[in-house]
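Revision sheet: structure tokens.
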Amino acid sequence: MDFLVRIPFVDLLGMKLERFEPGEAEILLPLRDELTNSWSVAHGGVTMTLLDVVMAHAARSPDPKTGDIPPGVVTVEMKTSFMRPGLGHLRGVGKLLHRTASMAFCEGSVLDQEGELLAHATGTFKYMKGLPAGGRKIQRLNASD
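Predicted:
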């Protein structure tokens, strides 16, 4: 299943959208060596990114009554708790708790391949109209600039 929009960073990490339905989303992430920390477990930033992306997808999930998909979202706030180290294949599960015309309130969990809870987060997302920077490409600066 393809993501709603292409996010190069998500591609780089190797995330795969597994499930996208009203109020819920699920994303898989096979853990590779370059995504680990000095303890050889999932880097906290990788875990938090998986939580952020899966909750954002839950926020943008189809409206159960109309089937409409809301516009893009940006993260306003996120609180994360880590319970155990991440190893192997990680699975992020996001759930939409409440939606208003301008905001979404979500929760997300990261589980390992045995289904053990590794991390949990809550997040607030703001609905946005259109793409960031009007869909323009980001200008890269040279070191000499």
